[in-house]
Amino acid sequence: MNAQLFRAHPGLAIGLALTVIFALLALLSVVWTPFPIAEISVARRFATPGPDHWLGTDQLGRDMLSLIMFGTRTSFTVGAIAVLIGAGVGVPLGLAAAIYGGQVEWLVLRFSDLAFAFPAVVIAILIAALMGPGAGNAIIAIGIFNIPVFAQVARGGAIALSTLDFIAAARLAGLSKPGIAMRHLLPNITSLIIVQGTIQLSLGILAEAGLSYIGLGTQPPETSLGLMLRDAQSLFLIHPWLSVAPGLAIVLIVIALNIAGDGLRDALDPRLRRPGLANVAG
Amino acid sequence: MRVTKSIALASAGLLLATSLAFAQSTEIRVGAPLEPPALDPTAGAAEAIDVVVYQNVFEGLTRIDQDGAVQPGLASEWTISDDGLTYRFTLHNGVTFHDGTSFDAEDVKFTFDRILADDSVNAQKALYEAISAITVIDPLTIEFKLSRPDGLFLFNIGRGDAVIVATESAANNGTDPIGTGPFAFVQWDRGSRVILEQYGPYWGEKPALTKATYVFIGDTTTMTNALLAGDIDGTYNFAAEALPIFQSNPQFKVVVGTTEGETILSTNNARPPFDKLAVRQAMAHAIDRQEIIDGATYGYGVPIGSHFAPHNPYYIDLTNTYPHDIEKAKALLAEAGYPDGFSATLKLPPVNYARASGQIIASEFAKVGIKLELINMEWAQWLEDVFANKDFDLTIISHVEPFDIGIYANPDYYFGYNNPEFQALNETLNATTDEAKRKELAQEMQTIIAKDAVNGYLFELAQTGVWNAKLEGMWQNAPVEGVVLRDIHWVE
């Protein structure tokens, strides 16, 4: 990626920049937050934003900026691991469906149909309710929902490629089916998967916030943006800022990821490239 | 289409207007945070049952008033023998159950036989085990014989656990409660509300209200909106953090009173390292009670130093037994063999005061080196793991039973405190009826468990009701569980 690319896709630049800022904040919270988030001091609660606490303090006197940094990290971690689970299982499944066809394809497709038949958040609630609340189970719940999404994207991309000459050449050269998938199909659908990954990341962050909000996700003393909203909701009429701050953070992160995802698709998706290069995808 | 819609809207508006006007006179809608699992107060421990039916649908021989004093109920008067072992009750004449069947001494005998039966599911069976014989003298006279004097007998028979049920209908009281109270059960829309209506042939003074609806709203925000929108007329105990919304609003009044809820950091005394006195003392020194009260109850809790309600005449202030002192706590931990502290779990039931107190205590304990892992649980899981199977290190819970210091005399109780000296004192207390002596004994017992730091004693829960400013007659305090409707009325 270079400067020219960003000029051609300003959305991508803005989205990526915002995403990077939040990701850096989240990363920073691993080693440093302005105040430890478990440090409670009731005496200093409900402080308004000021020089000591840039975003004020919450109902237990915890520093809001620290909480939002930590919450952002939880959101990104949950979303990212869920994307890795989804891509790690879904992409091989999709590729297998594309290259083997027949019963393998039927199974993969029926599995995705089944998974798609249930709304994602309902599945997540079901899993969290069965296995108990917690960030770990939220990751699994969201990750499982991601699997069919990646399987379909990988299969679609692979099928579009598999009629092309270089695949036929590889087959004639005696490369095995898994070999073709690994060496030729996978590298060529990577961009599709990255684009899908950013979209699923933002969906995952929203799902985590939703699960934590209803009490099935992250549990205190850890925190997440959804949990902060939950804690603040009964105080909304008295201290609206406590809900607005984490709410804004969620909105900004999701918007940033969506803009970045759109931009990435414009920039990377072969089907949307300038006419001169469009022949790659046939 | 448009025409019918506007007609429908207009008539809906008309209905709303009439029902509002009607509500101003004799109806009430009470918000309750928990829906009862069933409606038989003699067959379940849930406070939510008593909130709906106690003294409304069901009555006992005696009744507890809002100051915790015993008043005549279905028994108009009683005599107690000099040895304190025989109670003879005279019952009210002309009392009927809501299904029309008559009330007499046989129903009383049936009720207590049912409580004391081997297969009884009464939550407080132990309170009535001193009863050795029940004799029906005539339809309006009944005599109880006790195996030992019981200073709290008249109070205990006035609780929701001992309300009088009818032979004919007792089995169905869980879903279709039939009592003798001023209100009869009408319908229960599961997940939503219970409707009660005034019982015409009620034997006593008729209440001002003709209809009461209990609306179950679990979420604080929803409850706030329901109050502000006028969907409910009040709630008996509202989340302290949101009270400022109503305190400054002239349409509402906030009624702050006491409860019997001693909120404690329950400690598994049977499990190391909590079996060491020094460890428990260190934890007591590590607790900053005021911070917990401010943080978890917004200042509405009252600090306690032992397992006793501050408004009780027997109460003594023991909050300074182990004052907040981090250095002292560290020294005691080192003495107990944990110079670097230790790790433990803190299991928290799904109530706001517990979840918030838990986080604050974890932060306070971290300062002396005790690392707490917070585990949030649902009620069913908490009751099974902590209360029944005693599989816990620490937990936070409010013990809402009145005068329940006796639980410390039961070595099998979930926090595993076994002190023969205390158990002997409790037996003496149970058998003592002299007020001065009882007070002395109760204070000695409070002091023992405070010094032993059996549990972390945090605060007495307050009752913070929010009601429409035009309502009068609600109980300010909660000496027993229940929302008693009898005196509630609208004023203009």
UniProtKB/TrEMBL annotation, chain A:
Domain ABC transmembrane type-1: residue ranges? 72-261
Traced from the root, the source organism's taxonomic lineage reads:
Bacteria, Pseudomonadati, Pseudomonadota, Alphaproteobacteria, Hyphomicrobiales
Output the InterPro entries linked to this UniProt entry: BP-dependent_transpt_permease, MetI-like, MetI-like_sf
> Could you state one GO biological process linked to this protein?
transmembrane transport
User: What's this protein's family per the entry?
Assistant: Belongs to the binding-protein-dependent transport system permease family.
Q: Which SUPFAM superfamilies match?
A: MetI-like (SSF161098)
Q: Name one Pfam family in it.
A: BPD_transp_1
The protein's matches in CDD domains, at most eight in alphabetical order, are given as: TM_PBP2 (cd06261)
**Transport as UniProt keyword:** yes
| Protein name listed in UniProt | Peptide ABC transporter permease
Do you know which PROSITE patterns this protein is assigned to? ABC_TM1 (PS50928)
UniProtKB keywords: Cell membrane, Membrane, Transmembrane, Transmembrane helix, Transport
Q: Write out the transmembrane intervals.
A: 12-32, 76-102, 114-147, 185-216, 236-261
Q: Which residues form a coiled coil?
A: none
Q: Which domain of life is it from?
A: Bacteria
Tell me the membrane topology, using the record's own terms.
Answer: Multi-pass membrane protein
Q: Which GO terms describe its cellular component?
A: plasma membrane
* Localisation per UniProt entry: Cell membrane
Q: Which Gene3D superfamilies match?
A: MetI-like
TrEMBL record, chain B:
| Gene Ontology CC entries for this record | ATP-binding cassette (ABC) transporter complex; outer membrane-bounded periplasmic space
Q: Please state every residue range assigned to the domain named Solute-binding protein family.
A: 70-399
Signal peptide position in this chain? 1-23
Domain of life of the source: Bacteria
Q: Which Gene3D superfamilies match?
A: Dipeptide-binding Protein, Domain 1, Dipeptide-binding Protein, Domain 3, Periplasmic binding protein-like II
Question: Alphabetically, which GO biological process terms does the record hold?
Answer: peptide transport
Show the InterPro entries listed in the entry. Answer: Peptide/Ni-bd (IPR030678), SBP_5 (IPR039424), SBP_5_dom (IPR000914)
Query: Mainly localized where?
Result: periplasm
GO MF term (any one): peptide transmembrane transporter activity
Q: Name the PANTHER family on file.
A: D,D-DIPEPTIDE-BINDING PERIPLASMIC PROTEIN DDPA-RELATED (PTHR30290:SF38), PERIPLASMIC BINDING COMPONENT OF ABC TRANSPORTER (PTHR30290)
Identify this protein by name. ABC transporter substrate-binding protein
